[in-house]
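EI: anyone free to look at a 405-residue chain?
SC: sure, send it
EI:
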Amino acid sequence: MCLVVAVWRCQTRALKPGGPHEIRRRHRQLFQIRRRTAPAADSSVAPAAGLGDIAPQGGEIIKTQDDNLNLQLEMMAALPDPVFVLTESGRYAALIGGRDRSTYHDGACLVNFTLYDVLPRDKADWFAEQIQTTLVEDQLRIVEYVLSADDIDGVDSTNGPGGDIWFEGRISPMRTLVDGERAVLWVASNISRRHELETALQRLSETDELTGVYNRRKLLNTLNDRLQGSSNECDVFSLLIIDLDYFKRVNDTFGHLAGDCVLKQFAAACAVVLQDRALLARVGGEEFAVLMPAADAHEAQHKAEEIRRAIAAHRFLLEDGTPLSITVSIGISTAQPGCCRTDELIRAADDALYRAKEQGRNALAHSGATPAPDRAVVRPGAGMRSAVVPICTTDTVIRAKLVRP
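SC: here you go
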Protein backbone atom coordinates (compact mmCIF):
# COMPACT_ATOMS: atom_id res chain seq x y z
CA MET A 1 0.00 0.00 0.00
CA CYS A 2 1.39 3.34 -1.01
CA LEU A 3 1.06 6.32 1.29
CA VAL A 4 1.37 9.92 0.10
CA VAL A 5 3.15 12.14 2.61
CA ALA A 6 3.60 15.92 2.67
CA VAL A 7 6.71 17.12 4.47
CA TRP A 8 7.44 20.65 5.61
CA ARG A 9 11.12 21.54 5.65
CA CYS A 10 12.95 24.63 6.79
CA GLN A 11 16.38 25.35 5.38
CA THR A 12 18.87 26.52 8.01
CA ARG A 13 22.11 26.38 6.04
CA ALA A 14 24.27 29.45 6.54
CA LEU A 15 24.09 31.59 3.43
CA LYS A 16 26.02 34.55 2.27
CA PRO A 17 24.31 37.66 3.73
CA GLY A 18 22.38 39.67 1.17
CA GLY A 19 22.69 37.07 -1.57
CA PRO A 20 19.74 36.19 -3.82
CA HIS A 21 19.82 32.57 -2.66
CA GLU A 22 19.35 33.66 0.94
CA ILE A 23 16.25 35.76 0.08
CA ARG A 24 14.68 32.98 -1.92
CA ARG A 25 15.35 30.34 0.72
CA ARG A 26 13.93 32.41 3.54
CA HIS A 27 10.60 32.88 1.74
CA ARG A 28 10.28 29.47 0.11
CA GLN A 29 8.19 26.56 1.42
CA LEU A 30 9.49 23.22 0.25
CA PHE A 31 7.24 20.20 -0.07
CA GLN A 32 8.44 16.74 -0.98
CA ILE A 33 6.26 13.80 -1.84
CA ARG A 34 7.59 10.44 -0.82
CA ARG A 35 6.21 7.04 -1.57
CA ARG A 36 6.71 4.36 0.99
CA THR A 37 5.54 0.80 1.06
CA ALA A 38 4.02 -0.54 4.25
CA PRO A 39 5.94 -3.54 5.72
CA ALA A 40 4.62 -7.05 5.18
CA ALA A 41 2.69 -8.82 7.90
CA ASP A 42 5.68 -11.03 8.78
CA SER A 43 8.16 -8.19 8.69
CA SER A 44 10.32 -7.59 11.71
CA VAL A 45 9.41 -3.93 11.64
CA ALA A 46 6.85 -3.03 14.36
CA PRO A 47 3.50 -1.77 13.07
CA ALA A 48 2.71 1.91 13.42
CA ALA A 49 0.87 3.03 16.57
CA GLY A 50 -2.05 4.50 14.64
CA LEU A 51 -3.76 4.13 11.29
CA GLY A 52 -1.44 5.41 8.59
CA ASP A 53 1.23 6.61 11.06
CA ILE A 54 4.81 6.51 9.78
CA ALA A 55 7.79 6.60 12.08
CA PRO A 56 9.56 9.99 12.04
CA GLN A 57 12.80 10.11 10.13
CA GLY A 58 15.45 12.77 10.38
CA GLY A 59 13.42 14.71 12.96
CA GLU A 60 10.49 15.22 10.56
CA ILE A 61 6.90 14.56 11.73
CA ILE A 62 5.06 12.79 8.96
CA LYS A 63 1.26 12.37 8.98
CA THR A 64 -1.04 10.89 6.41
CA GLN A 65 -4.05 12.62 4.92
CA ASP A 66 -6.29 10.29 6.92
CA ASP A 67 -4.59 11.40 10.13
CA ASN A 68 -5.10 15.05 9.26
CA LEU A 69 -8.78 14.46 8.50
CA ASN A 70 -9.29 12.53 11.75
CA LEU A 71 -7.54 15.27 13.69
CA GLN A 72 -9.73 17.96 12.14
CA LEU A 73 -12.90 16.00 12.91
CA GLU A 74 -11.80 15.45 16.49
CA MET A 75 -10.98 19.14 16.86
CA MET A 76 -14.42 20.13 15.62
CA ALA A 77 -16.17 17.57 17.81
CA ALA A 78 -14.28 18.92 20.84
CA LEU A 79 -15.45 22.50 20.24
CA PRO A 80 -16.87 23.75 23.53
CA ASP A 81 -19.84 25.48 21.84
CA PRO A 82 -22.31 23.78 19.50
CA VAL A 83 -21.95 24.68 15.84
CA PHE A 84 -25.00 24.30 13.60
CA VAL A 85 -25.25 24.30 9.84
CA LEU A 86 -28.65 25.77 9.00
CA THR A 87 -29.92 25.96 5.44
CA GLU A 88 -31.85 28.82 3.91
CA SER A 89 -35.10 26.86 4.31
CA GLY A 90 -34.42 26.47 8.03
CA ARG A 91 -33.25 22.85 8.06
CA TYR A 92 -30.70 21.65 10.58
CA ALA A 93 -28.13 20.14 8.19
CA ALA A 94 -25.40 19.35 10.71
CA LEU A 95 -24.32 19.81 14.33
CA ILE A 96 -20.94 19.42 15.93
CA GLY A 97 -19.43 20.34 19.30
CA GLY A 98 -21.14 21.37 22.53
CA ARG A 99 -20.57 18.11 24.42
CA ASP A 100 -20.55 19.63 27.92
CA ARG A 101 -23.97 18.72 29.35
CA SER A 102 -23.59 21.14 32.24
CA THR A 103 -23.71 23.95 29.68
CA TYR A 104 -25.67 22.60 26.70
CA HIS A 105 -28.31 20.00 25.87
CA ASP A 106 -27.78 17.34 23.24
CA GLY A 107 -29.15 18.73 19.99
CA ALA A 108 -28.15 15.82 17.74
CA CYS A 109 -31.82 14.88 17.39
CA LEU A 110 -32.47 18.14 15.50
CA VAL A 111 -30.46 17.21 12.41
CA ASN A 112 -32.62 16.85 9.28
CA PHE A 113 -35.57 18.58 10.95
CA THR A 114 -36.55 22.17 10.26
CA LEU A 115 -36.93 25.09 12.65
CA TYR A 116 -40.71 24.85 12.28
CA ASP A 117 -40.65 21.14 13.18
CA VAL A 118 -39.08 21.70 16.59
CA LEU A 119 -39.69 25.32 17.67
CA PRO A 120 -42.77 27.44 18.44
CA ARG A 121 -43.87 29.46 15.43
CA ASP A 122 -42.72 32.84 16.74
CA LYS A 123 -39.25 31.57 17.64
CA ALA A 124 -38.90 29.69 14.35
CA ASP A 125 -39.83 32.89 12.49
CA TRP A 126 -37.12 34.80 14.39
CA PHE A 127 -34.40 32.25 13.61
CA ALA A 128 -35.45 32.10 9.94
CA GLU A 129 -35.26 35.89 9.76
CA GLN A 130 -31.72 35.87 11.17
CA ILE A 131 -30.64 33.30 8.57
CA GLN A 132 -32.11 35.33 5.71
CA THR A 133 -30.57 38.58 6.96
CA THR A 134 -27.13 36.99 7.25
CA LEU A 135 -27.33 35.59 3.72
CA VAL A 136 -28.46 38.95 2.33
CA GLU A 137 -25.79 40.96 4.17
CA ASP A 138 -23.18 38.28 3.41
CA GLN A 139 -21.17 38.95 6.54
CA LEU A 140 -20.74 37.81 10.13
CA ARG A 141 -23.61 38.84 12.41
CA ILE A 142 -23.87 38.54 16.19
CA VAL A 143 -27.22 38.22 17.96
CA GLU A 144 -28.36 37.50 21.51
CA TYR A 145 -31.44 35.49 22.37
CA VAL A 146 -32.99 33.35 25.10
CA LEU A 147 -34.07 29.74 24.68
CA SER A 148 -34.84 26.80 26.94
CA ALA A 149 -34.91 23.06 26.34
CA ASP A 150 -38.67 23.13 26.91
CA ASP A 151 -38.99 25.30 23.79
CA ILE A 152 -37.49 22.58 21.56
CA ASP A 153 -39.37 19.40 20.70
CA GLY A 154 -37.30 16.25 21.03
CA VAL A 155 -34.55 17.64 23.26
CA ASP A 156 -34.10 15.93 26.63
CA SER A 157 -34.58 18.80 29.08
CA THR A 158 -33.33 16.67 32.01
CA ASN A 159 -29.88 16.19 30.47
CA GLY A 160 -28.57 19.76 30.60
CA PRO A 161 -29.03 23.10 32.34
CA GLY A 162 -32.52 24.00 33.50
CA GLY A 163 -34.55 27.11 32.81
CA ASP A 164 -33.93 29.81 30.24
CA ILE A 165 -30.47 30.01 28.66
CA TRP A 166 -29.10 33.20 27.15
CA PHE A 167 -27.14 32.62 23.95
CA GLU A 168 -24.85 34.67 21.77
CA GLY A 169 -25.23 33.52 18.19
CA ARG A 170 -22.38 34.15 15.74
CA ILE A 171 -23.83 33.62 12.28
CA SER A 172 -21.63 33.40 9.17
CA PRO A 173 -22.68 32.75 5.56
CA MET A 174 -21.20 29.62 4.00
CA ARG A 175 -19.65 29.70 0.55
CA THR A 176 -20.59 26.11 -0.31
CA LEU A 177 -24.15 25.00 -1.03
CA VAL A 178 -25.55 22.37 1.32
CA ASP A 179 -27.82 19.93 -0.50
CA GLY A 180 -28.35 22.59 -3.14
CA GLU A 181 -29.23 25.34 -0.63
CA ARG A 182 -27.42 28.33 0.71
CA ALA A 183 -26.56 27.89 4.37
CA VAL A 184 -25.09 29.59 7.41
CA LEU A 185 -22.79 28.44 10.18
CA TRP A 186 -24.39 29.27 13.55
CA VAL A 187 -22.18 29.10 16.66
CA ALA A 188 -24.34 29.20 19.80
CA SER A 189 -22.49 30.25 22.98
CA ASN A 190 -24.09 30.04 26.43
CA ILE A 191 -23.72 33.56 27.91
CA SER A 192 -26.20 33.16 30.77
CA ARG A 193 -23.62 33.93 33.43
CA ARG A 194 -22.38 36.96 31.52
CA HIS A 195 -25.96 38.12 31.01
CA GLU A 196 -26.63 37.84 34.75
CA LEU A 197 -23.57 39.96 35.51
CA GLU A 198 -24.49 42.54 32.87
CA THR A 199 -28.04 42.71 34.20
CA ALA A 200 -26.78 43.14 37.75
CA LEU A 201 -24.37 45.90 36.68
CA GLN A 202 -27.09 47.65 34.72
CA ARG A 203 -29.44 47.43 37.69
CA LEU A 204 -26.76 48.96 39.93
CA SER A 205 -26.15 51.77 37.45
CA GLU A 206 -29.88 52.57 37.24
CA THR A 207 -30.93 52.12 40.87
CA ASP A 208 -30.82 54.51 43.80
CA GLU A 209 -28.81 52.73 46.48
CA LEU A 210 -30.76 54.13 49.43
CA THR A 211 -34.39 53.71 48.36
CA GLY A 212 -34.13 50.91 45.79
CA VAL A 213 -36.10 52.87 43.17
CA TYR A 214 -34.64 54.04 39.86
CA ASN A 215 -32.15 56.92 39.75
CA ARG A 216 -31.81 60.07 37.68
CA ARG A 217 -29.84 58.32 34.92
CA LYS A 218 -32.61 55.79 34.32
CA LEU A 219 -35.26 58.53 34.32
CA LEU A 220 -33.41 60.68 31.77
CA ASN A 221 -32.65 57.73 29.49
CA THR A 222 -36.29 56.64 29.55
CA LEU A 223 -37.51 60.20 28.95
CA ASN A 224 -35.19 60.57 25.96
CA ASP A 225 -36.38 57.27 24.51
CA ARG A 226 -40.01 58.25 25.02
CA LEU A 227 -39.68 61.67 23.44
CA GLN A 228 -37.70 60.40 20.47
CA GLY A 229 -40.42 57.81 19.85
CA SER A 230 -43.35 60.22 20.24
CA SER A 231 -44.94 60.27 16.79
CA ASN A 232 -48.66 59.71 17.35
CA GLU A 233 -51.42 60.44 19.82
CA CYS A 234 -50.76 57.24 21.75
CA ASP A 235 -47.36 58.57 22.82
CA VAL A 236 -48.78 61.17 25.21
CA PHE A 237 -47.29 60.74 28.69
CA SER A 238 -46.83 62.76 31.87
CA LEU A 239 -44.08 63.54 34.35
CA LEU A 240 -44.56 64.19 38.06
CA ILE A 241 -41.86 65.81 40.17
CA ILE A 242 -42.41 65.28 43.91
CA ASP A 243 -40.68 67.12 46.73
CA LEU A 244 -41.01 66.27 50.44
CA ASP A 245 -42.14 69.38 52.28
CA TYR A 246 -39.80 70.79 54.95
CA PHE A 247 -37.57 67.74 54.73
CA LYS A 248 -34.56 69.74 55.92
CA ARG A 249 -36.25 70.05 59.30
CA VAL A 250 -36.27 66.26 59.61
CA ASN A 251 -32.52 66.09 59.01
CA ASP A 252 -31.80 69.03 61.31
CA THR A 253 -34.01 67.73 64.12
CA PHE A 254 -33.51 63.97 64.01
CA GLY A 255 -30.34 63.54 61.96
CA HIS A 256 -29.55 62.33 58.47
CA LEU A 257 -30.07 58.66 59.34
CA ALA A 258 -33.63 59.52 60.31
CA GLY A 259 -33.98 61.38 57.02
CA ASP A 260 -32.79 58.30 55.14
CA CYS A 261 -35.40 56.23 56.99
CA VAL A 262 -38.14 58.65 55.88
CA LEU A 263 -36.97 58.58 52.25
CA LYS A 264 -37.08 54.78 52.16
CA GLN A 265 -40.58 54.69 53.62
CA PHE A 266 -41.73 57.38 51.20
CA ALA A 267 -40.44 55.40 48.20
CA ALA A 268 -42.20 52.27 49.45
CA ALA A 269 -45.48 54.14 49.97
CA CYS A 270 -45.32 55.63 46.45
CA ALA A 271 -44.62 52.21 44.95
CA VAL A 272 -47.83 50.88 46.54
CA VAL A 273 -49.86 53.66 44.91
CA LEU A 274 -48.21 53.28 41.49
CA GLN A 275 -48.27 49.43 41.41
CA ASP A 276 -45.56 49.13 38.73
CA ARG A 277 -47.63 51.15 36.26
CA ALA A 278 -45.15 54.01 36.20
CA LEU A 279 -41.42 54.62 36.59
CA LEU A 280 -40.51 55.99 40.04
CA ALA A 281 -37.05 57.56 40.38
CA ARG A 282 -35.14 59.49 42.99
CA VAL A 283 -33.56 62.43 41.21
CA GLY A 284 -31.71 63.98 44.13
CA GLY A 285 -32.02 64.58 47.87
CA GLU A 286 -35.71 64.54 48.81
CA GLU A 287 -36.88 64.99 45.22
CA PHE A 288 -38.48 62.16 43.27
CA ALA A 289 -40.03 61.85 39.80
CA VAL A 290 -42.72 59.63 38.32
CA LEU A 291 -42.92 58.93 34.58
CA MET A 292 -46.44 57.88 33.61
CA PRO A 293 -46.71 56.24 30.16
CA ALA A 294 -49.88 56.92 28.14
CA ALA A 295 -51.18 59.31 30.84
CA ASP A 296 -52.73 62.58 29.77
CA ALA A 297 -52.99 65.66 32.00
CA HIS A 298 -56.20 64.53 33.68
CA GLU A 299 -54.91 61.03 34.47
CA ALA A 300 -51.61 62.41 35.76
CA GLN A 301 -53.43 64.89 37.98
CA HIS A 302 -55.61 62.13 39.40
CA LYS A 303 -52.63 59.90 40.19
CA ALA A 304 -50.68 62.81 41.72
CA GLU A 305 -53.62 63.49 44.04
CA GLU A 306 -53.61 59.81 45.05
CA ILE A 307 -49.93 60.06 45.95
CA ARG A 308 -50.41 63.31 47.86
CA ARG A 309 -53.23 61.87 49.94
CA ALA A 310 -51.44 58.57 50.59
CA ILE A 311 -48.30 60.31 51.88
CA ALA A 312 -50.26 62.76 54.03
CA ALA A 313 -52.11 59.84 55.61
CA HIS A 314 -49.04 57.62 56.00
CA ARG A 315 -47.56 57.12 59.47
CA PHE A 316 -43.79 57.48 59.14
CA LEU A 317 -41.79 55.83 61.93
CA LEU A 318 -38.15 56.44 62.78
CA GLU A 319 -35.95 53.60 63.99
CA ASP A 320 -36.58 54.54 67.62
CA GLY A 321 -40.35 54.46 67.04
CA THR A 322 -40.82 58.22 66.77
CA PRO A 323 -43.82 58.95 64.50
CA LEU A 324 -43.66 61.66 61.85
CA SER A 325 -46.18 63.24 59.49
CA ILE A 326 -44.84 64.14 56.05
CA THR A 327 -46.51 65.96 53.17
CA VAL A 328 -45.43 66.46 49.57
CA SER A 329 -45.76 69.03 46.82
CA ILE A 330 -46.08 67.78 43.24
CA GLY A 331 -45.50 69.45 39.87
CA ILE A 332 -46.98 67.90 36.70
CA SER A 333 -46.14 68.30 33.03
CA THR A 334 -47.54 66.41 30.06
CA ALA A 335 -45.65 65.68 26.84
CA GLN A 336 -47.53 66.07 23.57
CA PRO A 337 -46.40 64.16 20.45
CA GLY A 338 -43.46 65.80 18.69
CA CYS A 339 -43.56 69.10 20.54
CA CYS A 340 -41.42 68.68 23.64
CA ARG A 341 -37.81 68.01 24.59
CA THR A 342 -36.57 66.33 27.76
CA ASP A 343 -35.26 69.55 29.31
CA GLU A 344 -38.51 71.37 28.46
CA LEU A 345 -40.64 68.67 30.06
CA ILE A 346 -38.55 68.66 33.26
CA ARG A 347 -38.48 72.46 33.41
CA ALA A 348 -42.26 72.62 33.06
CA ALA A 349 -42.76 70.13 35.89
CA ASP A 350 -40.22 72.02 38.04
CA ASP A 351 -42.03 75.30 37.46
CA ALA A 352 -45.31 73.68 38.42
CA LEU A 353 -43.70 72.28 41.57
CA TYR A 354 -42.56 75.73 42.67
CA ARG A 355 -46.06 77.07 42.10
CA ALA A 356 -47.44 74.31 44.31
CA LYS A 357 -44.97 75.26 47.04
CA GLU A 358 -45.86 78.92 46.71
CA GLN A 359 -49.49 78.00 47.37
CA GLY A 360 -48.59 76.61 50.79
CA ARG A 361 -47.18 73.12 50.04
CA ASN A 362 -49.05 69.80 50.46
CA ALA A 363 -50.40 70.63 47.01
CA LEU A 364 -50.03 69.85 43.32
CA ALA A 365 -49.95 71.98 40.20
CA HIS A 366 -49.97 71.29 36.46
CA SER A 367 -47.86 73.15 33.94
CA GLY A 368 -50.83 73.66 31.58
CA ALA A 369 -54.62 73.84 31.55
CA THR A 370 -56.37 70.75 32.92
CA PRO A 371 -59.73 69.43 31.80
CA ALA A 372 -60.66 68.12 35.27
CA PRO A 373 -64.11 69.15 36.51
CA ASP A 374 -64.48 71.00 39.81
CA ARG A 375 -64.82 68.67 42.79
CA ALA A 376 -64.33 68.89 46.54
CA VAL A 377 -61.15 67.39 48.02
CA VAL A 378 -60.53 66.81 51.74
CA ARG A 379 -56.92 67.44 52.86
CA PRO A 380 -56.04 65.65 56.14
CA GLY A 381 -53.43 67.30 58.38
CA ALA A 382 -51.75 66.41 61.69
CA GLY A 383 -53.28 68.40 64.54
CA MET A 384 -55.43 70.37 62.10
CA ARG A 385 -58.87 70.04 60.62
CA SER A 386 -59.07 70.13 56.86
CA ALA A 387 -61.20 72.55 54.96
CA VAL A 388 -63.18 71.38 51.96
CA VAL A 389 -61.75 73.36 49.06
CA PRO A 390 -62.84 72.98 45.41
CA ILE A 391 -60.09 72.24 42.90
CA CYS A 392 -58.97 75.42 41.19
CA THR A 393 -59.25 75.22 37.41
CA THR A 394 -58.19 78.77 36.62
CA ASP A 395 -54.47 78.53 37.34
CA THR A 396 -54.37 74.69 37.53
CA VAL A 397 -53.08 74.82 41.13
CA ILE A 398 -54.60 72.35 43.56
CA ARG A 399 -53.82 72.97 47.21
CA ALA A 400 -55.01 72.13 50.70
CA LYS A 401 -56.09 75.03 52.87
CA LEU A 402 -55.46 73.89 56.45
CA VAL A 403 -57.29 75.69 59.23
CA ARG A 404 -56.32 75.34 62.86
CA PRO A 405 -59.20 74.44 65.18
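EI: Residues 109 and 175 are 26 Å apart (CA to CA).
SC: 👍
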